[in-house]
Amino acid sequence: MDAWRSTGADCIGMSGLLVKSVTIMEQNLRELNQLNITVPVMLGGAALTRHYAESHLRNVYEGPLYYGKDAFEGLAVCEALARGELQKIDTQVEARLTKRAEVDAKVGQRLEGGDSATATAPGRSDVRADLPVPKPPFWGDRLVESIDLSEIYPFVNRTALFRGQWGFKRGDLNEADYAKLEQKAEEVFARLSEQCKREHILRPQVVYGFWPCASEGNDLVVFDPKDHERELERFSFPRQNGRQRLCISDFFRPRSAGERDVVAFHCVTMGVEVSHRAKQLFERNDYTEYLYLHGMGVECAEALAELWHKRIRAELGIGHDDSPRIKELFTQKYRGSRFSFGYPACPDMSDQEKLFRLLQPERIGCRLTENWQIDPEQITPRRSTSRCERGRHFAGGASVFASASGDFAQRNPRCDMLVSQSVPRRALGR
After folding, report:
1. Which residue among 112, 151, 383, 419 has the highest number of C-beta atoms inside a 10 angstrom radius?
2. Higher pLDDT residue, 190 or 242?
3. Burial 334-364 (b: 16+ CB within 10 A, else e)
4. What CATH number does the domain containing 321 carry?
5. Model-level pTM?
6. 217: left (phi over 0), alpha (psi -120 to 50) or beta
7. pLDDT recorded at residue 186
8. Residue 137: is the preceding peptide bond cis (ω within 30°)?
């Protein structure tokens, strides 16, 4: 509020990183109402969906409110604000809400016919729990401090980088002009790849490992690598209300089976130097280069997570199911799944504390904030499962809303859990 009052800004923006961020956004909007402030507000970040912003949060705030899925849409809103043309965007929002209401009404009619399950419906899903358990090469964790960037670059999702991060979109361009745009993007990528390697701007590191585990209801129990009867941590996951009533824990061998399953965790980072360089570019008003380096750091962190998940699958002996085409790995053409906390299937961000106790990512310069965000930039924590049915992904219960990462400074750390089967993609948001 002090910054807004001192600058007289025409708009206030908020970007959400985590599920909790959306709750804070709503609290901020209500605070603005109490202060009788009705300045236009723009919301974004991957923790927030367009529909939630344009329906619920728009009704909460007493002033104009808009959603920007990325910086480019945000700029379009600002341009409309500067030109006094926000009414055009309001009309588009109303049209989307009307169409959504019509679809929801049709879906509601089908659900009333008995297609849905209740939140209290008993029992687990019918996921198989008798598949052979992969054998890890070791129990516990390992630290990897030297990784050649040449191994990471092939795993960069160029579509996400060129279009999503850098904004090289076709739009109304003809084929020839778009080919020139793609060529420019490739040239930028080649230049930055060489510069980041030569100047050590990207400094990849990984900590990962394998732990014995078992499912118990909706819980995944993680045991001591040296004593497979000693419980170390317990993760509780939500279960679908309807459909197949899936839950992450279903994809691990039950504790009652007497045989321990295996779960892998990893945390990867691209280091802090890329953040420092990006900040310098921003402060020099070199926004184009800032955008390029920003996106490069984000997608290289994702690429490192993808590369290391592939290595983990190979070490578990299930890598033979991988597609030989790297591009197809981005759409889960392999056996296994990896998840980050904050998504519908595992929404509790405080579980990051358990993950940190297991992996100790402090050894690669990572720390956990009081809001369970991971600092510094270019880090990604996840967990993996190796024993799920191929190519499936499912969404959590209705009470859990989708989330992802948003803010650059906090999205790039990656800590993941890895599952050796492929958990339903559409069904379980990661």
Report:
1. 383
2. 190
3. bbbbbbbbbbbbbbbbebbebbbebbebeeb
4. 3.10.196.10
5. 0.71
6. left
7. 97
8. no
How far apart, in whole angstroms, are the C-alpha atoms of residue 334 and residue 419? 11
One-letter identity of residue 138: F
Domain containing 343 equals: 140-145+264-271+300-420
Residue 283 lies in a domain: no
**Lowest-confidence range among 269-273, 333-337, 416-420?**
416-420
* Positive/negative CA dihedral, 282, 365, 371, 55: positive
Q: Count how many domains the chain has.
A: 2
- Number of Cβ within 10 Å of residue 47's Cβ equals 27
In a domain, 319, yes or no: yes
Tell me the residue type at 156: V
Question: Does residue 171 fall inside a structural domain?
Answer: no
Confidence at residue 409, expressed as pLDDT on a 0 to 100 scale? 27
pLDDT tens-digit profile of 88-123? 999 999 999 999 888 877 765 654 544 333 333 446
Radius of gyration of the chain (CA): 23
Tokens 């990784």 belong to: 147
Q: Is residue 326 part of a domain?
A: yes
